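dumping the sequnces here before i forget
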Amino acid sequence: MRTAAQNAELALLLEVAGTPKPGNVDREREYEDLRFEHFLAGAVGAQEGLRMAGRVDGPPVGEAFEQAIAGMRDQRGGNTQFGALLLLAPLVRAAADGNLTRSGASDVAESTTVTDAAGFYRAFEHVAVSVEDPPADMDDLDVRRGSDAVPALHARDLSLYDVMDRSADRDGVAREWTGGFERSFGAAARMEALAGPMTERVARVFLELLADEPDTFVAINHDEATAERVSERARAALEGDEDPDALAEELVDRGINPGTTADITAAGLFVALEGGLAI
Amino acid sequence: MRTAAQNAELALLLEVAGTPKPGNVDREREYEDLRFEHFLAGAVGAQEGLRMAGRVDGPPVGEAFEQAIAGMRDQRGGNTQFGALLLLAPLVRAAADGNLTRSGASDVAESTTVTDAAGFYRAFEHVAVSVEDPPADMDDLDVRRGSDAVPALHARDLSLYDVMDRSADRDGVAREWTGGFERSFGAAARMEALAGPMTERVARVFLELLADEPDTFVAINHDEATAERVSERARAALEGDEDPDALAEELVDRGINPGTTADITAAGLFVALEGGLAI
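..and the predicted 3d for all of it:
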């Protein structure tokens, strides 16, 4: 039987294998400098961090996350699974605690401390992540400062949950952390309800999530209007008014990459696998 | 930096991602009951066995192999990576010993004992593997007997190397074990010499190996003539006289699956990754 850490790694692999996943790397599509193989190496590299998250008596989840990112980064594609691992770290710990429920995952999130926040900030030293400029009064907490921001975290006594709370209005991953992982668990339920090969279910759930809410990674890298338009197109694809494969090609060509939606899909896969979903 | 066990797992993942790989599951092709996702789960499941192989002071490689197969089997596709893991177990141990060379790998193979052979036989209890009937005087050593054959192994004092030696004339994986892993190291050198995305290099090396020698898995499941004809077609594909994608489709349609060639490709990938090949 796979461990929680193994199911998390498998979730990363199944997520990237799902096709078509408009705008994202999948089995049949990749960017020239961000290829399918980088995601495979990223998932394998994250293993040690995921194992740390999977130990009840393991280090704080923020430190496990940092280790996962350091390992993930051992490939040339850059940031492959940062957001997915940020969701998986608390979910894997909740599974290790024997309580992989929305409230169990929230307990893990809410019990984080400044130490977890420091791990999260250090993770940014391993990889370039697209983020927005922080508000003026939070410049000393700009994640791009990496460990240089740790004194400010201590000075303000901010836990990782607090950090996520401050980004929840504009970042879909942070919103999962503070909102009881609602969409991740919803995705898991859909994954279980659908039939057929997992890579097809993944594609369907991805499209449903994308149709349901504008992708915050697209909003950050492009703008809100683009993110909203992509969700409209996803709805059209679900309704049969748009060919999902053509949409996938088009978004990859335009470099529009709904990464947050992929992160939540991976988190949903993990919850489903832990729930007994057979591959 | 990835451990040897992680590189072995990544090799399994990169192997199955390579496309087109005529007759085998790849990123773009699968069988209805043996899908890409089964290989992903197989690779993740093999992790614990690979870790055992990767410990200098770990259990005998035959036992690590059995563990890898037991974990690999935790998916619905059946036998995904039996042969590849049989090659990887001694190669990972040689890497752990700091001597991943042809002679280092041969040392591992030659130092196996009856205990390793017993692990190998027990592995057959976890999964259905296509094998030929044994010669009449070896019926008590039929691998399909699983652990029931262990007393016969002890009675005849057969190491895993001895068992491989008895199959080397008809099984390409066994021939690697007794022939100093010649084709695996050759594949690694080719993998390093080629340029471009790994999934394309994998496809090229697979085709070269297939062109070079008839696949013994095809010979066992079909016949020698079929295996020879497939190698001819692979040569034609390399020479531009046959479209490799069309050949891939055709062989999948006909259920002709050059599995041994894929096993050696995976072994070559591992050796190349350990040699520093960057993804």
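DSSP finds 16 helices and no strands in chain A.
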